[in-house]
Specification:
This protein is an alpha+beta fold. The chain folds into six domains: 2-119, no CATH class; 125-236, Phosphatidylinositol 3-kinase Catalytic Subunit, Chain A, domain 1 (Ubiquitin-like (UB roll)), CATH 3.10.20.90; 249-358, Immunoglobulin-like, CATH 2.60.40; 388-535, Phosphatidylinositol 3-kinase, accessory domain (PIK) (Serine Threonine Protein Phosphatase 5, Tetratricopeptide repeat), CATH 1.25.40; 547-641, Phosphatidylinositol 3-kinase Catalytic Subunit, Chain A, domain 4 (2-Layer Sandwich); 646-847, Phosphatidylinositol 3-kinase Catalytic Subunit, Chain A, Domain 5 (Orthogonal Bundle), CATH 1.10.1070. 32% of the residues lie in helices and 20% in strands. The chain is built from 26 helices and 29 strands. The chain has a six-stranded antiparallel sheet with strand order 19-20-21-22-24-23, covered by helices on one side. Helix 22 (759-777) packs across helix 25. It comes from Cyprinodon variegatus (Sheepshead minnow). Residues 246-403 form the C2 PI3K-type domain. Residues 391-572 form the PIK helical domain. Residues 389-398 have a biased composition (Polar residues). It holds the Pfam family PI3_PI4_kinase.
């Protein structure tokens, strides 16, 4: 490995200033940005430095040494003081403690160590003899005047004894060995360098010392032992290396768990299941022995996973599950029945604590840099990809899913038969880049424990043009199914090309996806920070002459003019602000500030309005929907934009007769006629749009206080507290029986009276069919948007089963004609059940429920 420092010493005015670490910065480039190597205690492998292969196939990294300017030190001090104030901890003090005398000494000793290793002769180092300069003991002097028998062994096949003078050197023994081998006609390579090794010991006889000077020879003479030496070729000596390969299995030490308060019905025994999770897959699981249940259960034993530490992909998670068993849990019991540890009166799921230890190693465990190739256009060298001539010539359908089933490839008779996922990867090399919609299906079947396969996938993604990805595919790659860093980087690169308006459409999912990122420092986090800095302010004055609301930053505001508490359960605030003076309009800007409701659910529903017309869509359908905004600014807190010149259906009914007006079919018609010339087509389109949206999303709790209408006839819904088929119940019975709201007063406006057909009602049915099929054509994007919200804490969207309603409402497994007929049947069903909706509205008004 190599490290290149870029600095022209001849152009530097003070070359010796380079020796002062305070006079320069060490910078490295990554992804078009420059980063400073701040931590002096890190090694190069732990820094996120891009490595590449040079012409000699050696890994090299480039670091630039940049001189500090005078103002840099002062700016750094101010930044450190600000950071110390914010986090309450002095990082400079910690750094100075680490860079003490010990660290300085280690740095000083590193240089002579490198020089010694560079100048060391490998053969002399490996065969360094153990000799003594002490005089020969008196009891051994008699051996100096006679020869001693020495037995030589060669290649474990040839052995013979020779008489040797103890004053001779080891080279003399090797010369005698050569003559004997030549006289006996034994063939061996005379040009090969040989060395004498003590048989059974890692000790060598070499150099210009006499045999009597070797410690081993003197010990043998004292013990009256025979001398046995092996003649070993130098090439057979083990290489000198301080490195060795040790890839242990991953393991975790389970200590135990404790429960402060036992449940009312405790189980008889418990066991712990430890799992390695990667995305949505369980890579490996291991269970502990069962123990009798108590308030404190101790195991104190290691749980070994069947995965080597080196094969763990970046982003894996360790999961523990405590399982309770009811009944006998002896080894003879095959299927112990699981029992729940959760007691409604005792929240053990929040107070249970489990203790474990991870393995410790001699050196830090470092996440290596991602596999890289010096030439991105060259194929990997792992052999997983064949040449183009051997790849399958069949094509993938851009409309269908990538065929990963075992039998899907064998049916292609003209092409070679592939039966493994590796073979699919080969065929995907030339074809998949053209069909980006298949990428998520392909990546789900990759074995992320196979490092060579992962290397090939990273090579493939490096060739991928992000512009070829649809937005819904990029969003799908950001889901929990794909924790791989390179996969998520490709998705973020696609999002970088979106304009601000399109980013805003998916901002809810992008922000919530940060919660499932494997690491805080991610490509998505950096992307969101960059986009935020691009559109937001960089500094704020002490006195704000104007301000902007998060819900709409296009209108600068001056001050709050009106505030009132609304008559609702959570007591939201009605706020009106005066805008900056403008020659065009001075209409106040109004919002409803809510605390206690999770407005992310409302944002998700409003987002469907934009899903009909994504940025890459060629179709368009104007449904006259009111574009009001909604934003969640924190936990159960946010704001909703007020729609001007609008009233709730309940307010309309109260103005035309009170609670009894809920059963007047012409009430809404009379109110609209009094406000403006009738705009039936505007009402028909907006009503159709919300009928489709509320049905597909399964929006419940629809009453006349959360359905509104403008003076111009635009119908719209608000307050989406129940979605995906979750409806309010009374005594276990659902209060809402109709699939969506289509009451007789709505039909009266369309001219649908006593089942009599009308032109506007027919237009309503056609508009509903068009909107439903258009929304259904974007079902993949819609399901992806909801899937990204699964783990964000929304109560009615917390598990994969919650997506079942959405798939059924979209009729994914049906043809377009069958789906259209399905929705038209729902319209007929709503006509027949319209009186039930009116009855619920009457009860709502009488009870005064808000």
């Amino acid at each position: 490995d190599g490290l290149y420092f870029c600095w022209d010493l001849g152009c530097h005015p003070d070359p010796f200033a380079i020796l002062d670490p305070e006079k320069y910065l060490l910078l490295y480039a990554r992804g078009g940005d420059w980063y400073e190597a701040l931590d002096d205690c890190q090694i190069l492998r732990t820094l996120d430095i891009p490595w590449s292969l040079d012409d000699s196939r050696c890994l090299v990294a480039h670091i630039v040494a940049k001189p500090r300017v005078a103002g840099d030190l002062e700016q750094k001090k101010r930044q450190q003081q600000t950071l110390k104030y914010l986090i309450g901890h002095d990082l400079e003090q910690e750094a100075s403690d680490r860079l003490g005398e010990l660290t300085f000494t280690r740095r000083k000793l590193a240089s002579p160590r490198r020089v010694e290793l560079k100048n060391r002769h490998d053969v002399l180092y490996a065969t360094e003899p153990w000799v003594t300069q002490a005089p020969v003991p008196s009891e051994l002097e008699e051996w100096l005047n006679r020869k001693l028998p020495v037995t030589l062994h060669y290649m474990s096949k040839i052995s013979f004894s020779i008489l040797v003078d103890l004053k001779a050197t080891p080279d003399v023994l090797l010369q005698v060995f050569g003559r004997v081998m030549e006289e006996q006609g034994v063939e061996y390579d005379f040009s090969e360098e040989l060395v004498l090794k003590v048989s059974g010991r890692e000790e060598f006889l070499s150099g210009e010392n006499s045999l009597i000077d070797f410690l081993w020879v003197r010990q043998c003479l004292k013990a009256s032992q025979d001398l046995h030496l092996s003649v070993v070729p130098v090439s057979n000596l083990p290489p000198d290396s301080v490195r060795f390969v040790d890839w242990p299995l991953l393991r975790v030490k389970l200590l135990g768990f404790d429960i402060p308060q036992l449940p009312s019905k405790p189980p008889q025994s418990v066991f712990v299941e430890a799992s390695i999770l990667y995305g949505g897959k369980v890579l490996c699981s291991v269970c502990s022995p069962s123990k009798p249940f108590a308030d404190e259960v101790l195991w104190n034993e290691w749980l070994d996973f069947d995965i080597l530490l080196r094969d763990l992909p970046r982003g894996v998670k360790l999961s523990f599950t405590i399982n309770a068993c009811a009944g006998d849990t002896s080894p003879t019991t095959k299927d112990p029945k699981p029992a729940s540890l959760k007691d409604p009166k005792v929240p053990t799921n929040e107070s249970m604590a489990i203790s474990f230890l991870l393995d410790r190693y001699s050196f830090p465990v470092v996440l290596p840099n991602t596999f890289r190739h010096s030439n991105s256009s060259a194929s990997p060298t792992s052999g997983l990809f064949p040449d183009k001539s051997t790849a399958s010539t069949s094509s993938l359908s851009p409309q269908g899913k990538f065929p990963l089933e075992k039998d899907s490839v064998t049916r292609r008779s003209p092409s070679p038969v592939f039966n493994t996922k590796g073979d699919h990867l080969r065929r995907f090399r030339e074809e998949s880049v053209q069909y980006a919609s298949n990428l998520p299906h392909f990546l789900r079947d990759i074995n992320w424990l196979d490092r060579k396969m992962v290397e090939d996938v990273h090579w493939l993604l490096g060739l991928w043009d992000p512009g070829e990805l649809d937005v819904h595919v990029a969003l799908e790659l950001l889901s929990t199914d794909f924790p791989d860093e390179i996969v998520r980087k490709l998705a973020v690169r696609r999002l970088e090309a979106l304009p601000n308006d399109d980013v805003l459409k998916y901002l809810l999912q992008l922000v919530q996806t940060l919660k499932v990122e494997p690491y805080h420092d991610s490509f998505l986090a950096r992307y969101l920070i960059q986009r935020a800095l691009r559109v937001s302010h960089t500094s704020v004055a002490e006195t704000l002459p104007s301000f902007q609301l998060q819900i709409n930053k296009l209108f600068p505001l001056m001050q709050l003019d009106r505030c009132k508490v609304m008559a609702s359960k959570k007591k939201p605030l009605w706020l009106e602000f005066s805008p900056m003076p403008s020659p065009t309009s001075n209409t106040p800007v109004g919002i409803i500030f809510k605390e206690g409701d999770d407005l992310r659910q409302d944002m998700l529903v409003i987002q469907v309005r934009q899903t009909r017309d994504p940025p890459d869509s060629e179709k368009s359908l104007d449904l006259n929907l009111i574009p009001y905004g909604c934003i969640s600014t924190g936990h159960n807190i946010g704001m909703i934009e007020i729609v001007r010149n609008a009233a709730t259906i309940a307010a309309v009914q109260r103005s035309l007769g009170g609670t009894t007006a809920t059963f007047r079919n012409d009430a809404l018609f009379e109110w609209l006629r009094s406000k403006c010339p009738l705009q039936e087509i505007r009402f028909v389109k907006s009503c159709a749009g919300y009928c489709v949206a509320t049905y597909v999303l399964g929006i419940g709790d629809r009453h006349n206080d959360n359905i509104m209408i403008t003076d111009q006839g635009n119908l719209f819904h608000i307050d989406f507290g129940h979605i995906l088929g979750n409806r309010k119940r009374f005594l276990g019975v659902s209060r809402e029986r109709a699939p969506f709201v289509l009451t007789p007063d709505f039909l009266y406006v369309m001219g649908r009276v006593k089942s009599r057909n009308s032109l506007y009602f027919q237009r309503f049915r056609e508009t509903c069919s068009e909107a439903y099929l258009l929304l259904r054509s974007h079902s993949r994007l819609l399901i992806t948007l909801f899937s990204l919200m699964l783990l964000t804490g929304i109560p009615e969207l917390s598990a994969a089963e919650d997506m079942r309603y959405l798939r059924e409402a979209l009729q994914e497994d049906q043809s377009e004609g069958q789906a259209k007929a399905h929705f038209l049947e729902k319209i007929t069903e709503c006509e027949n059940l319209g009186w039930t909706v009116q009855a619920n509205w009457w009860i709502h008004m009488v009870a005064g429920i808000k």
